[in-house]
Amino acid sequence: QITLGRATKDNQIDVDLALEGPAWKISRKQGVIKLKNNGDFFIANEGRRPIYIDGRPVLGGNKWKLNNNSVVEVSV
């Protein structure tokens, strides 16, 4: 499991998106990428702003299957 978001002294994450662009708009825990037992990767949006997978929006509270070479963008 890999967490994406904005690290703070009280919130440790794996991929700190605060290093890119206007960080204050990114949730502390924006998303989580998980590997399922069947070998598929899924991303769950746990933030308020959409995450785009290959140009398609994944709204907060939803998840999406990642494919080989998927492009993941976090809306700011």
From TrEMBL:
SMART domains membership: FHA
Q: Start and end of every FHA domain?
A: 2-58
SUPFAM superfamilies in the cross-refs: SMAD/FHA domain
- Please indicate which superkingdom the organism of origin belongs to: Eukaryota
What would be an example GO MF term here?
G-quadruplex RNA binding
Output the Gene Ontology cellular-component terms: Ino80 complex; MLL1 complex; NSL complex
What GO biological process terms does the UniProt entry carry, in alphabetical order?
A: positive regulation of transcription by RNA polymerase II
What name does this protein carry? MCRS1 protein
> Which organism was this protein described from?
Odontophorus gujanensis
Q: Which gene encodes it?
A: Mcrs1_1
